[in-house]
Design goal:
By secondary structure, the chain is mostly helical. 68% of the residues lie in helices and 3% in strands. It has helices spanning 3-25, 32-47, 53-60, 64-73, 89-104, 111-126, 128-138, and strands at 78-80, 86-87. The protein has a two-stranded antiparallel sheet with strand order 1-2. Strand 1 (78-80) and strand 2 form a beta hairpin. The chain is globular and about 55 Å long. The chain starts with a helix and ends in a 10-residue tail after the last helix.
Length: 148
């Protein structure tokens, strides 16, 4: 498949996902419909094919060399290395969100560090066990653990 065709296909998928996310975010956080839409998004991204760095570069408006550097730094997740590098579509979608936010805010330099920082800040709250524990702690639950 050509780079242009693959880029168009991924852009179409991500555009559809963005529309679903927009509708989902307009619903209250505890609305069952929001949870269903979030599930649709998660499944669509999990089922998306891995992405070549050149295509990711087109989507992120970065060079292929920069995309590969970001993958080596851990900002983009590598799906496979052999016979060629392919990137995880779920993580690419996350990075695309962050890069878009930064560019809307006028940031064009130092994107790698800022994207890495923002994704690092989000990651702990993506862990269900941590969110549950924090909620329990907020309600006065849990117990203090002290080292000897």
């Amino acid at each position: 498949m050509s780079v242009a065709t693959e880029t168009a296909s991924m852009r179409y998928l991500f555009d559809q996902i963005e529309e679903i996310e927009e509708v989902a975010s307009s619903l209250p956080a505890d609305d069952e419909r929001r949870h269903k839409l979030d599930g649709v998004v998660a499944r669509a991204l999990r089922n998306a094919p891995p992405v070549r760095p050149v295509v990711a570069g087109e989507l992120l408006d970065l060079t292929e060399k920069t995309v590969k550097a970001w993958a080596r730094e851990g900002v983009l997740a590598i799906h496979s290395q052999e016979p060629r590098m392919l990137l995880d579509a779920v993580r690419l979608h996350e990075v695309l969100h962050v890069v878009s936010e930064l560019r809307r805010a006028g940031r064009t330099r130092g994107l790698l560090d800022e994207v890495h920082r923002r994704l690092g800040d989000r990651t702990p709250l993506d862990r269900e066990d941590l969110v549950t524990g924090l909620a329990r702690l907020g309600r006065g639950g849990g117990r203090a653990v002290r080292s000897a």
